[in-house]
Task: structure prediction
Amino acid sequence: MSDEEDAEDARTTASPPEGLDGLEDVLATLTYLLTRSQEHERRTARAGITANRSDVYLLRALAEGAGASRVSDLADRLMVKPSHVTRQIDRLQGQQLVERSQDELDRRARQVAITPDGRDLLDRLKQANIAGLAGALDGVPEPDVAATVSVLRHLIDRYVHRVRTMRAEDDPLADRADAAARPPATAARLGTAAHAGG
Result:
């Protein structure tokens, strides 16, 4: 670790910048509330669907991508192992929410795309989520909501960049080997996925 990194760590642990302590509390509480299994089940039931959180994240990544995706690209966007994504795809294909096709550029590889049924599932869940948010934010001015969205997207983008950088430092060969083939996740992709799946 460099002297600059040591100095930054020392500043961070000594006294966090004003406001970060409150932000950490708010994010920890929000994460807990949105990712409770009972809350997820309540929202999916309201939408008339049955899907676990990780499957929803994967469907969101597919829906927001440009056409079909390779398993490795999906795993990279979701920051999980490809074997995990493969198991999810098997499950989702069985429910006719995704479909596989042969990769035109690499006959050994398979592409995955969301089906109309998968898009319909996401739309119903999104509408249920929006209804819940509208009730929770009743009376909060629209500019405050827009400012919150902007700050959280920026936070997600920076956090994703940091996670990717740390992962590359831990395993530089794995990341460099196929970096050109994997598009970076955007804040919007991961942010909406996190909201929908929680």
